Amino acid sequence: MRQLDLFAAGAAPGFDPAFRSLVRTNLAHGAWIDHVPGWVHGHDALFDELERELPWRRETMKMYDKVVEVPRLLSAVREHPLVEQMRDALSERYGERFVYMTAALYRDGNDSVAFHGDTTARDMIEALVATVSLGAPRRFMLRPTEGGEHNKIAMPLGRGDLVVMGGTCQRTWRHGIPKVASAGPRIALMFRPAWAKNYRTSLS
After folding, report:
1. N or C: which end of the chain has fewer CB within 10 A?
2. Which domain holds residue 30?
3. How would you write the chain as a 3-class SS string?
4. Would 204 be classed as within a structural domain?
5. Cβ atoms < 10 Å from Cβ of 73
6. Are the C-beta atoms of 105 and 59 separated by less than 8 Å?
7. Which CATH number does the domain housing residue 189 bear?
8. pLDDT on residue 159
């Protein structure tokens, strides 16, 4: 059973194209993150729509000498009017066209993603990745590639929050969503520029 946001119940989905609540945090090694709490309003309705209509699929990945199931469901996102408007607003804000849109459904606390830098982007000097978190909050973790165990950053993201990772973040930092004992479902809606053409969504 998904716990709804009482303040957003029944609200039509939308977002703030002016990014009025944006806060930038400069990290080490030329990395930065922008956080816009509650960027999407009426997020419960958008969650329900995407959960119901997207063509969710399972994926597998090779881990050492085993093939394991990716612990979340994945989907491409196409021809959704509101998501297209978000993409346009992000592209205008950051001066780079966000071309590819994908989504990951974390069904409960068992679904997760290990610390990683995005494929292709982690080999680039700088790269942009934007993520909107819908549904139940989960801890979004960041740590530097070197010496990361003692310099972790944790941000609870959900209920329409936006995070944009920029600068060297994909190369010099790693990010992930750890498993937890209990959590409601969450959708991560991700926007990437043209470098993501060959991006493996299993690492989203």
Report:
1. N
2. 23-197
3. CCCCCCCCCCCCCEECCCCCCCEEEECHHHEEEEEECCCEECHHHHHHHHHHHCCCECCEEEECCEEEECCCEEEECCCCHHHHHHHHHHHHHHCCCCCEEEEEEECCCCCCEEEECCCCHHHCCCCCEEEEEEECCEEEEEEECCCHHHCCEEEEECCCEEEEEEECHHHHEEEEECCCCCCCCEEEEEEECHHHHHCCHHHC
4. no
5. 20
6. no
7. 2.60.120.590
8. 96
Strand 161-167 versus strand 129-135 pairing type: antiparallel
State whether the Cα torsion 154-187-101-92 is positive or negative.
negative
70 in a structural domain: yes
Q: Count structural domains, the chain.
A: 1
Q: Tokens 């990437």 appear where?
A: 192
Angstrom distance (rounded) from CA 193 to CA 173: 19
